Amino acid sequence: MNLQAIIDIDHQLLGVFNGSDSLFLDGLMITLTSSPLWIPLYLALLYLIIKNNETMVQILIIIGFSALCFLLSSGMADGLMKSIVERIRPCNDPILKYQVDIVNNYRPNSFSFFSGHASNTLSIAIFIFCLVRSKLLGSVMFIWSFINSYTRLYLGVHYVSDVLAGWMWGAAVGFFTYFLCNRVLKRLTLPMNYISNQYTRTGYSTNDIDMVVSIFILTIIFAVIKALIISY
Asked: Which of 69, 112, 115, 155 has its CA 20 to 30 A from that of 88?
């Protein structure tokens, strides 16, 4: 398959995911794609890490590798690949921009390949899942990543290949940074296996995990209410 064939497929798939006739969905997607919306979730995850690790050294190591995870995923997407590939976003493409549904004139000026939203969110989702080892929290984090990625397609600011490439890089970064973090933690702490149903096997409280999940659900509810207000 040559490059032009991939581009043609991207254009066709964009038409499947981009936009709708619903003002509610328009408002919901523009709300969900906003990074500040997710600040409560980030703070809840930070609380989870601080609450469930015994020493400041452990906490700082985990926070440090979380930051490294974000920097590697974001740096590759926004700091390197976009400036090298220089792929114009569909919403700004001279050929496509009048065919793409635009919400609130949302047309980011940066390049398209690959999606920082996709790579950042999936890398953090995988890192947190491997760290906490909770199926519930892992499911929520993967849903969070999918939501963020889908909004980029709906809003016409990325092609499907941008998102897929972002996921691939994000997955690699997430597993890599967790591997490094785990090796460092093993050198500094004794291995422990938790068998109580109140904790995951890596020692994270299920009550604290439920709190993070609740924050996620409340954030979605807030986004829905805001979208309803916007649409009416």
From this structure: 69
CB 202 within 8 A of CB 58: no
Task: Identify which of 130, 126, 125 has the alpha carbon closest to the alpha carbon of residue 141.
Answer: 125
φ and ψ of 122, to 5 deg: -70, -35
Q: From residue 33, give the alpha-carbon distance in Å to each of 22, 59, 156, 183.
A: 17, 29, 12, 34
For residue 193, name the pLDDT band (cuts at 50, 70, 90): low
Angle at 164 between CA 221 and CA 119, to 5 degrees: 60
- For 52-63, the pLDDT digits (tens) are 988 899 999 999
- Taking only the tens place, the pLDDT of each residue in 76-104 is 888 888 888 889 999 888 888 788 888 98
- Are 137 and 128 spatial neighbours (Cβ–Cβ below 8 Å)? yes
Calculate the dihedral angle through the C-alpha atoms of 17, 10, 86, 106, rounding to the nearest 10 degrees: -20
